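Lab notebook, bench 4. Continuing the backlog of folding jobs that were queued last week. Each job is logged with the same field layout so the records can be merged later without manual cleanup. Today's entry covers Solute carrier family 2, facilitated glucose transporter member 8, a 459-residue chain. Filled in by technician R.K.

JOB TYPE: sequence-to-structure
TARGET: Solute carrier family 2, facilitated glucose transporter member 8
LENGTH: 459
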Amino acid sequence: LRVQNAKLYLATFAAVLGPLSFGFVLGYSSPVIPELSKISDPRLRLDSNRASWFASVVTLGAAAGGILGGYLVDRVGRKLSLMLCSIPYVSGYIIIISAWNIWMLYFGRILTGLASGITSLVVPVYISEVSHHKVRGMLGSCVQLMVVTGILGAYIAGIALKWRWLAVLCCFPSCIMLLFMFFMPETPRFLLNQNKRSEAIASLQFLRGPHVDHEWECRQIEDNVEEEGFSILEFKNPPIYRPLLIGVVLMFFQQVTGINAVMFYAETIFEDACFKDGRMASVVVGSIQVCFTAVAALVIDKTGRKVLLYISGFIMALSTALFGLYFKMVLPTPSNSSHPDLLFTPGTESSLPWLAVVSLGLFVAGFALGWGPIPWLVMSEIFPLKARGISSGACVLTNWVMAFFVTKEFHDLITLITAYGTFWLFSAFCCMNVIFTAFYVPETKGRTLEQIEAYFRRS
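JOB STATUS: finished
OUTPUT FIELD FOLLOWS
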């Protein structure tokens, strides 16, 4: 790493503490649901219906956070929006820690979801705007890397900590983010859009070091900054609506692969798949996700975005088909089920638990290589500056609404079309996302944000 990039990496690290908090929110439900399903207090005990709401209600908060984040990022800036996220993160966990009934648990999850929605919008935008094009892919992929690191951290901590103490631990990343972001600069593009040229130059000096032509980069950004306001009617223009449609469809396909349903219910899936220690299996899956997301971050600026999306989609399609085959081989018909509180009801002790582990591990690895980090990265790259807030908000809203439906209806979907039918449906969506990538997703490797915006204007 070059010395002149050191402060850029420091700013990125401060920002991705937000996605780390976001990961802890997502991972929190997996160890907590089995614990609260066995608790003696009926006011807090989670049956299958309560568990599905506990896991999925966070996505409703995140959908609202996407709308709020789209407003905040253009009004108060990228930096302050991130700092404000700490308030609902910490407030939500305090409510969970002090909860004495199920409604307090739900409300705490909604607040942490609200913060997660804002974070998932603002951090990719912040990183894309402070980075230069040679490392933007790597730094942008760190968003998803920190999300999966947070999920893994929640899984591991959940082995040793009870649910209230786990909530205490989950408060720390957002508090550290608040402290670090206080010393980081606002993005040059936002400052120039606010006609604050001297502050933008100071931001570039911090991010690029003293030995770079800051005036040249500042002029490049200024040439692309629209001084006039943005009207909703401008969405009829192809340079505005085309990247928005691409971003929205990418977010739709990311969720209908089934990733959030799998991660929310990771322990239960493995336990019901006859795997002896579901909690440790979840840790293994989380570790695979962290490793392959790191690999994606290292190679994305060399291979490009589309190649990784192809590889990722093919791997996920194969693995979900295999996982469906596993359940087809080991599970009875739904009419023979006598355990309605389980996601899946094995008929007999299976001799093929390795197929479930390999299939799910392969799915997670494939997702981590492409469809995990890249939709968020592309979202932060393709929108024009004047429409970045509202377009990003629409994408985040799409992502979290779909996450809610997939997570909340996962149990009902299994009842309706069986476990194997559900995973085969996910496999079909994985095939469709490869086709969409081939025809509609632009390659953004090696291009500045201004060049990407010019590409959509020309085409």
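OBSERVATION: The CA atoms of residues 173 and 435 lie 38 Å apart.
SIGNED: R.K.
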